[in-house]
Amino acid sequence: MNTFSSECGNCHSPIDIPATYIGKHVKCTNCGCDFVAEPRIGGGAAKTAKPQKQSTTEVKKSHCFSLNVSSKELIFHQYCRFFGLFSIALGLLAVMAAGVQFLTSPKPAAAIGPYGTLGAALTLLINGAIHLGLAQIIKLFHSIAYNIQAMKETRQQPH
What we know:
Layout: E1 2-7, E2 14-18, E3 25-27, E4 34-36, E5 47-48, H1 75-104, H2 109-112, H3 117-156
Antiparallel strand pairs: 1-2, 1-5, 3-4
Helix pairs in contact: 1-3
């Protein structure tokens, strides 16, 4: 069987392809990306080869999606969620400390000012809310990417 050497446009792995597939869309056996079978520069001469374990299949469309999204929760989402909850917990403790300071201090205005305990508590609460919101945005984009990947995989499967 006459074969020629081609290269995947995504993972750049060399693949021996039967000569009948020149100019057709094939699927890489290494990464699964679709590409047009063209002879490599310097390795384009047709040669007779033993049957390969690698097999290429002709596909109808050329779509390559190298982003592999897993269903596992992202580490940055975990960090934002933890830090947000931790900041809110510290903020609530600081609000209670500001209340105690306000009730027991001879100068209660020091507890309420922007640089006092209440100001620090509000900063922690706002920081926690921002991080929890960021965690939800990350989760949203991750779920969108995961669902798009799943839809593309189902479209590529033969019916």
